[in-house]
Amino acid sequence: MSHSEDGSHDSHTQPEVKAIGRIGDWPLDPHITFLNHGSFGSSPKAVLEEQLRLRTELEAQPIEFLVRQLEGRLDEAKAHLATFLKAHPSNLSFIPNATHGVNTVLRSLRFQPGDELLTTNHAYNACTNALRFVAEQFQAVVRVAQIPTPLDDPMEVCEHLQRAVTPKTRLLLIDHVTSPTALIFPIQEIVTQMKRQGILCLVDGAHAPGMVPLHLSELGADFYTGNCHKWLCAPKGAAFLHVSPDHSKHIRPLSISHGANASRTDRSRHEMEFDWTGTADPTAYLCVPTAIEWMAAQMPGGWPAIMKRNRDLAQWASSFVESALGWKPLAPASMVGSMASLRMPDSKEPCQPSTPLYSDPFQDQLWQAHRMEIPIIPWPHHPKRLVRLSAQLYNEPTHYHRLCEVMNRYAPSLQ
Asked: pTM of this prediction?
């Protein structure tokens, strides 16, 4: 691989990476180009096999599994996850997804009329909807800080946030890694900045676990929620909510069940309520340790090496797309993790969503005509849009070569 004179990789030079592991390690169809790990992740076959084993064990004796054993099994899985997140297990609860975590926190808190709930224009739409829903219940106000792009420095995020703070600001809902724009926000600086002003911080870390190193005990956020099914590659329906001990008495699960009036004294009310919210399949949670361990074993150096490998590939892919198509990134490479979003030409079609999740018909066109899955995201609003690429262990440079080849076929209609 060639290098520039200052020792950095030339943005046009293909990195020396290849798909990690056998193609059979992942259940993905080998005939498609899958550049959308960021949406729902993909679980290795070894992890899904462990989930099947656990489901078979559960069904062989449901009472033994769910009543007598589940609490201890969840404790073991939480302890493993807590080590990875550098958190205390008693502050962690398993939940189905990060949106569930955001809703759990917001619907446990109480606000006064006129209180301001702050977020940004990079926030995940589902979570902004939850914020608006709760604001309506209390006659509070949702304020949206505008973080313009392109950004030159991550600290610009802090500056724009501070301009939106007022004496009425009570809570900040902030992404660690933004979903539409795929930017790593300077979360430690943001949390410190807000806590200094007495503002609660709810961090939507949906994409962060497995993409960036985490130290939740040091971060100091009041609430942090993240997915395990994305970059940790656990089964769908595995996520966590981390609640500061200062708030654990006030945060209740969305489903109130037996733990609410349990007479036990060996376990906190918070743990008992979140450990059992009603009958459900807990095997996705119990597979989190398997996912963490299997992924770590795929590269010498474990998770730090995986994060670097995927980050390097995503940064190179972003530069490659920029040079091949002229589409511009939104921020410096230091704000890019395992995903990268680039500004593509405006849409010429009306915005007619065919599903609740995706609204640009070009994404469906790419899938139907080319078996390529990559999100085309209206942002900040139609007709402006982004293309967001992901880089996971099963991806390699040839996938982004094909992306550019396919996009070039549409060049006349995209201009």
From this structure: 0.94
